[in-house]
Amino acid sequence: MTAPTRFAAIVNPQAADGKTARDWPVIRSHFENTVGPLTDYVTQAPQHAIELARAAVRRGHRVIIAVGGDGTLNEVVNGLFENDATIDPEVTLALIPRGTGSDFRQTVRLPLDPRLAVDALKAATARPLDLMRLRFRSHEGQDRIRYSINVTSFGMGGIVSERAKRYSKYVGGKLSFVAATLFTSLGFRGREVRLEMDGRQSVAARILNVAVGNGQYHGAGMWICPRASLDDGLLDVTIIEYMSPLRVAKDMKLLYNGRVYTHPRVRFHRVARISASAAQETLIEIDGEPLGRLPLEMEVLPRAVRFLSTPRGETESASA
To answer: Hey, what CATH topology would domain 7-123 get?
Structure first.
C-alpha cells in the first residue's frame, strides 16, 4: 500500500466560474515541481468538500489545501472539525485561492495568481488561527452547526451573496457583488434585529447588514471588518443601520477603503460571543455562502486551526 502524500488538495472544479477545472493540471504540476508530491480530491457537488477533507485526514495526509473560493475553504474547515475540535490536531490547513470573491486570501496576504500562491506556500509556516462556531436555522427550518473562518453576515448579506453568484457569470467577482448590493438595496427595507453580546450588552436596531468578522473582507473586496485579527480570540462586529438605496450607492466607497467606521450609521463592537434574532425572515451568509437564517448564535474558538501562512500573512491594519 502506497504511503499517503503529505499534501492533499480538495479541488472545486467549478471555482472561478469553472476555470479551475481547466487550470488545475497546470497548477498541480507547478505545485509538485515547487513544493512536493500532491494527492488531489475533486468535488462533485456542494458540501462534498466536507466529506473529502475528512477522508483525506483519515487517510493520513498532514496538509489539506482548499483549492477554490471562500465557500470551498469553509467546507474544508468544516471537514476538519467535529464537536468543536479538529479530528486531528496535527493537520494543517492551506489555501490556493480560486473563487468569485476569494476574500479570505486578502487577510492572509495570499496572491490571487495560483502559481504565486503555490510559491508562497513553499515558504509558509503553520500558525494557529481562530474560528467561529455558529448555531443557526437552515432554510428548511432545522438547527445547524457550522464553523466559519472568515466573515458571517446577516441582513442584506444573505440575499446579496446568492445574487452575486448568478451575476458573476456575466460581470466578474467584484462587479457582481457591487451590482447585487445596489439591486438588493432597492427592495430591501431593513430588518429589526436584537443582538446580545457577551451576555451583558443588548442592541436593538433596524439594520441593513451586520457582519461578524474573524477575517477582514467579504463580498469580493468589501473591507467590512478592517480591525479584525485572525488570532486575537475575539470577533469584530460591524453593524450597518438601515439607509436608503441612494445613500447606499453614495457611500459604498467606504466599504472598500477601510473607513467604514467613519460612517454615522455604522457601529463597531469587539466580542467573544454574539446572538441575533429577528421577527422577520433574515438570511445569513457564512463565508460567502447563503446557508440559512436567524436566529443565530456565534462564539469564537481561539487558535483552533493550524494554517499555512507567510510571516507577513495578515494585513497590517488587523492589529491596529
So the answer is: Rossmann fold (3.40.50)
